[in-house]
């Protein structure tokens, strides 16, 4: 009842000094806007990482060549020691690894008519499709037969498709990769950009890549699919045993290859992102505190200006508590309006830059509401106490 | 208030009020004993510094006596705490000030409603009450005007309406004509006389002899003591 009256009074008094109110609100609005924006960005990154995690699955290990060591000194990166045989070896020998997919990736120039695009060419085997859970959205993956025949067929990633064909269907078209003619048989779905672009790629059969395009006999990586994520230790042991034996490493030599769990790597990326976001949120919170000081300042001025009004209200029956709540409500409303403006501003800003206007997470709108009213009430507390404890007679005569 | 059986509204016994300014004690009221009955119309006169403002403040429950007792109705004002004083000001006393003390950007109606807000009356009933008293002071066509759009006389009538709206047992007017020209001042005094005839108890502080003459009783103060108390 009295609170409702107070809200009405507060709105009226804010209207009385529009410029002053607006300037005060700005501090809070900028602060809360910044906090929300960081949250939105964090959410978007998080979402992308999650999508990647899902598409990779949590039971895939990435084996890459390591460094060779001479007497404890790391010399050059040794990129030629992983072989296709070893992938087969791992797949057949280990009980816990159900598939080992060899890959060779290199730079390549793709051309279609007068369009050309520098991209990454990845040669692999048909198993890649199921292990990496990466199915074509049009056309098909290449077959075992095409792999054996070193067929000149390819699948395009979304970026390459867009650069060469725009909106046209590429299936069945003929393109040049490093000046060699290939037929496009499939198109892969977009995975979205994160720290690197997984869509900027052309897939060809491994044999084609190794023998026709690049003339190499080694791999750039092997994707090993474990039976389940719990088999990590045993899988690692098997991989190390097989590769160390094949590479004839003495017991005192370090591994000349690296094994990484994709999901753990992504978790690390995710953690870093979160740390950066937290840091920015702290900075934004500082601007919120500055906004709160602005509210406190304006409330102190208001209380002094309205000394006579306070005296009158007390004379006609307002209790100290009434005066206290009146000014407290006013400060809280300043905070809340600032919060609303900040939220709207943040959505507008986000819309302007990303085209997605309304994706501020609901729970964060709730938090910002609580934060803003909290700041308002803390900022308003001291001025409101001053107002409530004014001597009635002096206040009535205040000039 | 209405359940008050005694006809004595104000009863002061040996009231002293002393202000402490730094190390100096300034006596403002000295052994004031005073009785005012229901439905009296009293003027308090006296030169500056005679203690009439202090007396008004105590009568209006804005201040309490240093020593001595003050009964308003049956309530011993000296024993009340801050909240109880607020309540008694809200329900038993109506103030009219020399400088009107209206909220400038609020309508006349809103100003008159204000005491009822603090007594917790629901909004609709409040508006009705406020409209009724505004009509009684002849402002039925100016209710929605903001108070800074009104003339001095109209403002003081709004202030009187505000003082009346809670049906107080005592109306305290502190130089109500002090900021008005004599013609408008006359109108205000006429309103007060009418209110007195309708049964209200009014105490007014004034400098003007001719205004004091319109009341039924003049109490003259000098140096904090009652110099003279005469019924006309």
Structure commentary:
- The complex is a heterodimer of chains A (399) and B (232).
- Chain A has two domains: 181 residues, no CATH class; 189 residues, no CATH class.
- Chain A has 13 helices and twelve strands.
- Chain A has 399 residues and is of the alpha+beta class.
- The mean pLDDT of chain A is 86.
- In chain A, helix 1 crosses helix 11 and helix 11 packs antiparallel against helix 12.
- With 232 residues, chain B is an alpha/beta fold.
- Chain B has a single domain, classed as Rossmann fold (3-Layer(aba) Sandwich).
- Chain B is 33% helix and 29% strand.
- A six-stranded mixed sheet of chain B has the order 6-7-8-3-9-10, sandwiched between helices. A four-stranded antiparallel sheet of chain B has the order 2-1-4-5, with helices on one face.
- In chain B, helix 6 links the parallel strand 7 and strand 8.
- In chain B, helix 5 packs parallel to helix 6.
- Chain B is globular, with a radius of gyration of 17 Å.
- Chain B starts with 7 loop residues before the first strand and ends with a strand.
- The relative contact order of chain B is 0.19.
- The model of chain B has no long low-confidence stretch (mean pLDDT 91).
- The interface between A and B is medium-sized, with 22 and 26 residues.
């Amino acid at each position: 009842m009295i609170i409702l009256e107070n809200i009405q009074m507060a709105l009226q008094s804010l209207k009385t000094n529009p410029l002053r109110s607006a300037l005060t609100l700005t501090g809070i609005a900028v602060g809360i806007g910044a906090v929300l924006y960081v949250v939105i960005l964090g959410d978007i990154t998080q979402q992308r990482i999650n999508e990647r995690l899902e598409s990779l699955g949590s039971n895939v290990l990435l084996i890459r060549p390591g460094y060779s060591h001479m007497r404890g000194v790391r010399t050059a990166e040794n990129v030629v020691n992983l072989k296709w045989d070893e992938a087969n070896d791992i797949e057949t020998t280990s009980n816990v690894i159900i598939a080992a997919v060899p890959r060779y990736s290199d730079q390549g120039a793709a051309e279609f008519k007068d369009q050309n695009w520098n991209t990454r060419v990845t040669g692999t085997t048909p198993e890649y499709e199921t292990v990496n859970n990466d199915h074509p959205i049009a056309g098909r993956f290449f077959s075992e037969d095409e792999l054996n025949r070193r067929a000149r067929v390819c699948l395009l990633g979304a970026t390459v498709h867009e650069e060469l064909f725009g909106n046209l269907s590429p299936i069945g078209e003929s393109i040049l990769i490093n000046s060699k003619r290939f037929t496009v048989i499939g198109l892969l779905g977009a995975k979205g950009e994160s720290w690197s672009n997984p869509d900027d790629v052309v897939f060809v059969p491994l044999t084609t890549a190794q023998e026709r395009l690049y003339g190499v006999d080694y791999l750039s990586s092997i994707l090993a699919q474990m039976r389940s994520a719990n088999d990590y230790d045993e899988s690692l042991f098997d991989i190390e045993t097989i590769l160390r034996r094949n590479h004839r490493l003495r017991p005192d030599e370090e591994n000349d290859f690296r094994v990484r769990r994709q999901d753990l790597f992504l978790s690390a990326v995710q953690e870093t992102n979160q740390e950066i976001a937290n840091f920015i949120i702290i900075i934004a919170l500082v601007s919120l505190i500055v906004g709160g000081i602005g509210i406190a300042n304006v409330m102190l001025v208001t209380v002094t200006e309205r000394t006579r009004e306070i005296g009158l209200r007390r004379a006609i029956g307002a209790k100290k508590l009434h005066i206290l709540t009146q000014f407290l409500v006013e400060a809280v409303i300043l905070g809340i309006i600032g919060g609303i403006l900040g939220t709207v501003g943040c959505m507008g800003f986000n819309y302007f830059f990303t085209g997605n206007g309304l994706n501020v997470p609901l729970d964060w709108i709730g938090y910002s509401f609580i934060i803003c009213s909290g700041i308002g009430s803390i900022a308003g507390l001291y001025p409101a106490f001053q107002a409530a404890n004014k001597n009635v007679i002096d206040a009535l005569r205040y000039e | 208030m209405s359940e008050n059986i005694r006809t004595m509204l104000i009863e002061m016994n040996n009231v002293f009020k002393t202000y402490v300014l730094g190390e100096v004690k300034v006596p403002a009221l000295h052994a004031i004993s005073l009785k005012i009955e229901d439905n009296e119309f009293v003027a308090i006169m006296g030169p500056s510094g005679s203690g009439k403002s202090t007396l008004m403040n105590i009568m209006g429950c804005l201040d309490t006596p240093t020593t001595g007792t003050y009964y308003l109705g049956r309530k011993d004002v000296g024993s009340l705490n801050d909240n109880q004083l607020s309540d008694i000001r809200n329900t038993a006393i109506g103030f009219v000030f020399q400088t009107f003390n209206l909220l400038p950007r609020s309508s006349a109606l809103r100003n008159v409603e204000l005491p009822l807000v603090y007594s917790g009356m629901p909004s609709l009933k409040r508006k009705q009450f406020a409209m009724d008293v505004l009509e009684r002071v002849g402002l039925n066509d100016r209710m929605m005007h903001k108070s800074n759009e009104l003339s001095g006389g109209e403002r003081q009538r709004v202030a009187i309406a505000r003082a009346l709206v809670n049906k107080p047992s005592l109306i305290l007017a502190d130089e109500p004509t002090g900021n008005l020209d004599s013609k408008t001042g006359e109108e205000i005094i006429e309103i007060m006389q009418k209110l007195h005839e309708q049964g209200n108890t009014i105490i007014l502080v004034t400098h003007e002899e001719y205004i004091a003459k319109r009341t039924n009783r003049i109490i003259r103060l000098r140096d904090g003591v009652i110099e003279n108390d005469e019924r006309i």
